[in-house]
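hey can u check if this looks right to u? its 166 residues, i copy pasted from the old doc so theres a chance i mangled smth
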Amino acid sequence: MVKAVLSVVLVLVVISSTIAKYIPKTGKRIPQTLSRGWGDQLIWAQTYEEALYWSRSRNKPLMVLFHLEDCPHSQALKKVFSENNELQKTLDEDFIVLNLVYETTDKHLSPDGQYVPRILFVDPSMTVRADINGRYSNRMYAYETADVNLLISNMQKAKKLLKAEL
């Protein structure tokens, strides 16, 4: 009888601990499907037009991320991108973010071709910052898993340019 009661109690404890989720003191945002795994705690714009509007109205630079769900390079970058707390915090506080699995009609977002993963920055005046790029000469806006520090540096550059130019 005691074993049966202990078993029931143990099962109830296990079930209750798996149901309860940790909620940070600042409050956890509801994950959005728009993140596609790139940062569930970030608020992602749904379209390029919406992202441009938010960027202009909130006076924040826009980071546009092009990727494909079945691309191994995109998947590897997504894992590092979503797990980097500094990157996620900077994006949350200082940027408008948009991730796209399709190309836009704005040809300025593919200055050196259409490839993935590709990350570009757009300032609130709706100017694509072609001068902020990665380390590859043949894919100027590509970032790999080892390039996260360069991406963070480029994000800081996008913020500094914003302050200096406005």
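Residues 17-25 have pLDDT under 50 and may be disordered.
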